[in-house]
Every structure is written in C-alpha cells, then in structure tokens.
C-alpha cells in the first residue's frame, strides 16, 4: 500500500488524541513562571528586552531563569511584542444612512480654494442634501472655524424649516465637524450627527463628488484673485448646479426640482414627449415605448449588503438583521443609532491562517540573456522591454 503501518492505523482512528506530554522534572513551577512574568511586566522592566533583564538581575545577584525561558514564558502569555500600556484607537463601525425624501440626511464638508498668492486659501463650506443632491447652504470664509460652521448649520436648518428629530447631518472627522460647539448646536436642535470612519474616504461620497463637479468645471480658475472673485464664482456655480445641472444620480433631474417636489411634473412631461416621439416613428424604438430615467426611491451611504453576499464574507456586527435585498427601511429598529456612528469590526487585517503560503524568492536563479538586448534579465511574463 506504500503507507507505513503507523500512518495506516492513525488514519483509521483520526479522533484519537495524543497523550499529553509530561512536564520535565527540571521545568519551572507555575509559581516560578508567574514570578518571572511579573518581573518582565513590571514598571521597571516593561520596556527592556529579556536579555537586558537577565543581565540586570545577574548584576543584582538574582537568577530567575535563562533568557530562552523568559522568551518562552512571554510567548505563552502573548507578550513578546510590546509589554507597555499602549494607547489603542477606539473601534469605529461603518455608518449606514438612508434617505427616502429631502431634508432627511445632509452631508457637509469644507474644501480649499487657492488664493492669489502661494499658501493662501479660501475655505468653502457646503451642505448638501444626499437625496436630492441640492446644495441647501454654503459659505466662503477666510479660515476654517467651528463657530462659522455652527452659524452656517443653524441658518440652513432655520431656512429649510427642519423640525426636531428629523434630520441627520453627516460629515468627516475634521476639527470643525467634531467640535463641541457644533455638537452642542446639533443636540439643541434635535439633529443626529454622523461621522465618517477615520482614514476612509468613501464614507462621505456625496460631498466629495460635488466638490469634484465644481473643480472640474471649465470656468474653474487655477487661482482666485481675491475673496470677492471666489464669492462671485460660487454664487454663479451653485445657481447653475441647483437649477440647471441635470444630475445623473437622480434621473437627470435638476437638484432643485427634486428637492422642492417638482419631480413628478417633470417626469410626466418627459413621458409625454417620449410617447409622442414613439408614435411618430415607432420603428426606431426596438424595445417599445421609451420611458424617462426613474427617480431613486432611496439613497444610501454604505447600504447593508445582501445576505447571500454577507455569507461569503467574515461576519460583520453592523447590520445583523439586514434583509436579502436593500429595502427602503433600515433593518435596525433603533435606526439611527445614538451619535449615528456605529463602529467597525475589531480588526480590519486579514486572517493570516487563510492566506496562501508564501513562496520564498529564489535569489540563486541565474538570469537568461535576452537576444538583441545588452545585459541580463530574469524571466518575467508580461513585461515588455
């Protein structure tokens, strides 16, 4: 059978457990191991390597164990890397925000506009409704300030007549966004605050997309000559953006038409126009009567994944009750959460046990000479010289 006898019997009884290895007679007792561990983790030796501790104790006339035993004890207690008390970052969950109508979720951010001289900037504050993509408030200032942000948010909420406990305001973690004055204002107005995860750029996609639309306009200058120049540009741009720009994310409607309830009227007029075109030349429409682009019924920031997709991934504590398809209601009954900042999984690093084994690099391979090319080069598919 080309199999050894021990292997044959072991495979016949795979559940048999091996007998525990007896402790050597010269091994340290549990009390002695704990004494060594306490010394290594003490405030005196917490930032010293075991060799330094061993030498220091020897000079003091005290011998606990060998250096290798110290390392073995530390490894058994998972303390071989850093034994000092380290500051740990808090856990952040992925924010999941849902808007089914205007003035439910706002996104706001601050961007810099270059001034006339090097290292001079103007700061543009923009508040955007994620459902209608309408800019409901903006301000151009000479500096980034929490007091200015507070003034803009308060004025915009009053202008839009937002009742308490209706609005969620989402932002990144800039100093103005996380300031106490803004947090106290939102709390007093009954507005839920939400923040992006640190170092995650796609948690605030709507504001970033709006800034890109502005800065990629052909009339956007390389620099603004003065504050009044930047103010005039912003007035022209936001008027165009809200009233004339046909946004692809909202069925090619203008943000103001969707925000102020004129979407059905515009869609009905477009439907009538397309129906008339079909009647005139039906042979040009091979798929039947054309229809205008539909208006999204729901807009998400980080929608929960379908259940069949989540089964193929590591479990996430963010949305345990999500349905198989993304619905118009949030799967959690307590949505939004307090502070609306759920936290991310404890670790975002891959499980090393599931990674494929690493193939060592063969540094002894002799390179081949390439015909017609001076020098030597190793074989490498897909590289053109």
Automatic annotation (TrEMBL):
Name the SUPFAM superfamilies for this protein. Answer: Ribonuclease H-like
* Top-level taxon in the UniProt lineage: Bacteria
Q: Where is the composition biased (Basic and acidic residues)?
A: 306-315
Every Integrase catalytic domain range: 98-263
Disordered: annotated span: 1-31, 296-366
Question: Biological process GO terms, please?
Answer: DNA integration
Supply one GO molecular-function term: nucleic acid binding
Coiled-coil spans are none
Classification via NCBIfam families: transpos_IS3
Q: What is this protein called?
A: Integrase core domain protein
């Amino acid at each position: 059978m080309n199999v050894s006898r021990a292997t044959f019997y072991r495979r016949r009884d795979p559940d048999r457990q091996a007998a525990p290895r007896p402790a050597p007679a010269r091994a340290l007792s549990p009390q002695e191991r704990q004494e060594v561990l306490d010394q290594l983790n003490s405030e005196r030796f917490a930032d010293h390597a075991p060799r330094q501790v061993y030498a220091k104790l020897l000079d003091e006339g005290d011998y606990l164990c060998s250096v290798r035993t110290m390392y073995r004890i530390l490894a058994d207690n998972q303390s071989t890397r850093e034994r000092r008390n380290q500051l740990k970052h808090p856990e952040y969950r992925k924010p999941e925000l849902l808007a089914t109508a205007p003035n439910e979720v706002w996104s706001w951010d601050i961007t810099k506009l270059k001034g006339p001289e090097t290292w001079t900037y103007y700061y543009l504050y923009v508040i955007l409704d994620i459902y209608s993509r309408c800019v409901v408030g903006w301000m151009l200032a000479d500096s980034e300030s929490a007091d200015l942000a507070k003034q803009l948010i308060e004025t915009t909420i009053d202008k839009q007549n937002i009742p308490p406990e209706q609005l969620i305001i989402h932002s990144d973690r800039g100093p103005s966004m996380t300031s106490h004055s803004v947090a106290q204002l939102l709390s007093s107005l009954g507005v839920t605050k939400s923040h992006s995860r640190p170092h995650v750029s796609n948690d605030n996609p709507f504001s970033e997309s709006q800034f890109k639309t502005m800065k990629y306009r052909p009339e956007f200058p390389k620099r603004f000559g003065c504050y009044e120049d930047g103010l005039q540009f912003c007035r022209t741009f936001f008027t165009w953006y809200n009233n004339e720009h046909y946004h692809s994310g909202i069925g090619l409607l203008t943000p103001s038409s969707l925000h102020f309830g004129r979407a059905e009227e515009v869609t009905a007029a477009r439907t009538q126009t397309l129906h008339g075109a079909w009647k005139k030349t039906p042979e040009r429409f091979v798929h039947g009567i054309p229809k205008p682009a539909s208006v999204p019924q729901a807009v998400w920031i980080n929608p929960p994944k379908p259940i069949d997709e989540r089964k193929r991934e590591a479990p996430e504590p963010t949305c345990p009750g999500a349905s198989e398809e993304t619905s118009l209601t949030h799967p959690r009954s307590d949505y939004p959460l307090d502070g609306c900042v759920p936290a991310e999984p404890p670790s975002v690093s891959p499980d090393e046990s599931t990674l494929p084994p690493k193939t060592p690099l063969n540094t002894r391979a002799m390179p081949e000479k390439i015909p017609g090319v001076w020098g030597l080069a190793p074989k490498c598919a897909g590289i053109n010289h």
